[in-house]
Amino acid sequence: MKSPYITRVKVIAWINGERVEIPAGEALPEGMHEHDIAELKRLRSIEDLTETAAAEKDADKAAKASAAEFAKARAAVQSAAESIKVADTKTITVPPEGGDPDTSGSTGAAGGSAAADLKAPAAPKRQAAAKKTT
Questions:
Q1: Sign of the four-CA dihedral 25, 26, 30, 36
Q2: Kind and range of the H or E element at 49?
Q3: CA distances (Å), origin 92, targets 88, 104, 105, 108, 130
Q4: Which parts of 42-93 are beta strand (E)?
Q5: What average pLDDT does this structure show over 31-56?
Q6: Residue 23 contacts by C-beta under 8 Å, 6 or more apart in sequence?
Q7: 45 is a domain residue
Q8: Sorting pLDDT into bands at 50, 70 and 90, what band is 16?
Q9: How many domains does the chain fold into?
Q10: Do 88 and 77 touch, CB atoms closer than 8 A?
Q11: Residue 59 lies in a domain
Q12: Which of 16, 65, 105, 127 could form an SS bridge with 90, CB 3.0 to 4.6 Å?
């Protein structure tokens, strides 16, 4: 059986009463004590390939779940934005006498054209106020 551990750095260990040097990137030989393996893992001198593969699989699963959640939230926001969107239509005002409708899209204070009649006399209160200031 091949060891699931790969060394990250050069490891020197005693295996079966012999000093063994294991270069970086090589698999740990059979016969190492579990305590030694646990200590090398704690020091991050070796990498457990099965744990690494499981971590990558979990990370991929989490990324897919996150992308699905984001797509769902984005669709909800877009749906909400479309539901409150104001229609871009022209305003049509029909004068009370039955004349031609105003389709300019803007109405003034009196409900007619937006342009004010500047030659018309001012309202009486405005005329009185204008006389007081001058």
A1: negative
A2: helix 49-83
A3: 13, 8, 7, 13, 36
A4: 46-48
A5: 89
A6: 7, 10
A7: yes
A8: confident
A9: 1
A10: no
A11: no
A12: 105
The residue range of the domain holding 25 is 5-50
- The CA–CA distances, whole Å, from 89 to 20, 45, 82, 104 equal 84, 70, 16, 11
Count of beta carbons in the 10 Å neighbourhood of residue 35: 8
Strand partners for 20: 13
pLDDT tier, 3 (very low <50, low <70, confident <90, very high otherwise): confident
Residue 29 maps to a domain: yes
Nearest Cα to Cα of residue 112 among 129, 97, 127, 93:
93
Torsion from C-alpha of 45, 28, 4, 34, nearest 10 degrees: -80
Q: Could you tell me the pTM of the whole model?
A: 0.42
- Helices assigned H by DSSP within 84-98: none
- The amino acid that residue 10 corresponds to is K
Taking residue 28's Cβ as centre, other Cβ atoms within 10 Å add up to 20
Q: What letter represents residue 92's amino acid?
A: I
User: What is the bridge-based pairing of β-strands 18-22 and 5-7?
Assistant: unpaired
Q: For residue 57, what are its two tokens? A: 């699989």
pLDDT tens string 90-123? 666 766 775 565 555 555 555 555 555 566 665 6
